[in-house]
Specification:
- The complex is a heterodimer of chains A (592) and B (124).
- By secondary structure, chain A is an all-alpha fold.
- Chain A has 23 helices and three strands.
- Among the domains of chain A are: 245 residues, no CATH class; 40 residues; 32 residues.
- A two-stranded antiparallel sheet of chain A has the order 1-2.
- In chain A, a hairpin with a 2-residue loop joins strand 1 and strand 2.
- In chain A, helix 2 runs antiparallel to helix 5 and helix 6 packs antiparallel against helix 7.
- The longest helix of chain A has 39 residues.
- Chain B is mainly α.
- Helix content of chain B is 42%, strand content 2%.
- Chain B is built from four helices and one strand, in the order H-H-H-H-E.
- Classes of the chains: A mainly alpha (592), B mainly alpha (124).
- At the A-B interface, helix 7, helix 10, helix 12, helix 14 and helix 15 of A face helix 1, helix 2, helix 3, helix 4 and strand 1 of B.
- Strand 3 of chain A pairs antiparallel with strand 1 of chain B.
Chain lengths: 592, 124
Amino acid sequence: MSGLIGQINPGLLLVLVGFAGCLIPVQRVRQALMVGTPVVAMLLLALAERGTDLAMVSVLDLELILYRVDSLSFIFGLAFLIAAFLNAIYALHTDDRLQDGMALAYAGAAVSATFAGDLMTLFVFWEITAVSSVFLILRAGTKAAYQAAMRYLGVQIFSGVLLLDGLAYVYKSTGSLSLDAFTSFDQPGAVLIFIAFAIKAAFPFLHNWLQDAYPKATVVGAVVLSAFTTKLAVYAFARMFPGFEILIWIGAIMTVFPVFFAVIENDLRKVLSYSLNNQLGFMICAIGIGTPLAINGAAAHAFAHIIYKGLLFMSMGAVLYRVGTAKASELGGLYKSMPWTTIFCIIGAVSISAFPLFSGFVAKAMTMSAVATEGYVIIWLMLLFASAGVLEHSGIKIPYFTFFGHDSGIRVKEAPFNMLLAMGMAAFICIAIGLPTIGGFGYGWLYNMLPCTTTAPADVCMISGKEIKPYPPYTVDHVLTQLQLLMFAVLAFILLKRFGLYPPEKPGTILDTDWLYRKPGFGMVKWAGTVWGKAGPAMTAFFAGLGARTFEKIETTFSPRGALARGPLTVSMAMWSAVLLGIVMLVVLVAS
Amino acid sequence: MTLPPERDSSGRFIKPEDDAPKPSDENMHPLSRLLFGWVSSPRTPLFLLILVILICAGLVVFDLAVNRHEYLDFANANGFYAIWGFAAFGLAVLSGWPLGKLLRRDEDYYGEAETTPQDVESDS
């Protein structure tokens, strides 16, 4: 019995219940399903056998593997399910059928894509994540959100189309839709699939859909969005492109550039979106390194990140919900009325900053160590810079300008209980997986789930010949150096504030790469439309006139009433035709 | 673009005039008073600065006593992480001045300024 139940894809269950949830009008019934289904799904996942194809279906001669769990997909899938559960609790104060249902379907699609055993299944759920998640932006109900949602959908669907193109090349050349890792860009489809993943992972210059759309989503929507799409792309990279050196450099650039944007951004949900980009950089860089330690680092970072980034988005969502804005220039002093939200936000902030005893510390440590071990000095220095940058925008800016700093005089009620409960649970996980292991409690729980262990199958830890040793995060060296980095950065903050050197938070729009398609790109399309609007009718009239004149000429010449049909000419034409025919026959006779 | 009135041209907060109404703390949440009551004390900023300086000094001194084994040799230098953390943070923050001037536009630069999502029930 447990074997049969263990073959049910937990993600598919979430998708089906999510779509059905959109039709359930009774709020409490629907919400019970939204909260309960991820719990059931976690139980199903626990029963699943690892490393075998658990559910298959044959479509148009294609053998699709709908459910396959291994040590890499397990940790990502579990993180997605925990996030789905926390998000459902966070949304309990709302009565929005579409949002509830689509949030669960979106989570389910991400889980299903993670447990997909072939490229086609991955593609199908890849697209469902795009289509279901767009409602979380649309439900904000503003014009800006609608426009951002359309841009978001366009980008996401484009990623899907590239993936479909790529898998067609793979199928044509190998006859298989296997998710086996590529070894070079020369393989058919590799580049297309790489770009498809790169769009969803928000690589530099392809990143702006994220900062454009997430901050415009609903309060709940932004929390949900923060968990799935980008981490699914990270998983896909870990599955298919481990050890690709270009990822090391792309990842390092991803960690650094958002730091500068986050410093000057005023909308704190957008700051968190830039911070998300920065965190993805660490994971992408680790995947590029590709050693077992690095792959473990990427997976641990993704797990920890899903929880603490969700927590930070939850706290900013709670502020937005109560105050009506998440702009730093309008906030301050909220600790006086939202103490619980303040505490949970601080826990999220110290976790993402990687302070010892919190989840970011034990997760990021492996990536930093893997980069240093492989001797990438410049990359390591970039990541170290980005670590101080994370402290700046997510560790200090978010809690300081919201809850402390200048007292804005805003006094509101504390966040609704369900929001506090979700934040409390997320905060608990941030601490629980960050503490030293004492009696089975602590980071050991996270480390035991990592993809590359001594018992893990070789196809997950792709780089062979590397010894897999347990990684100890709590060494004197590591704690000391991390505290030095962070505390001196805190000192820099205090001094910069004290001497008035910290740039003030100002309202405004910060230009990023989306300027290219929102200003010149949109301008060109608009110009082309105007030109076509005017040139089109003129060209139609010109060709219609030309056609009419030509027809008139032909008719006056060749019609029964035309010039050629008149008597004398017809007679002479007949005579000349007979003469020419005679000459031709004579030539043929002579020649033969 | 004009600065918010509560800051001067270099971004520092202007101390409120004596007759300016101060935000009331009457309705402060009891938990806030218990956990964060010390935050609004005028001596807190100086106290925090001294505390952080002491912690930083302690970390550098402790570094002298520890023989670290880094994969990258230069990182073994005493205080390397301290200098890097301080400089990186300073660079990131100070870059905000020129970058803000370069990249910041009006809120309605792309058309209508963003408005609040409909699931917000602000009671402020």
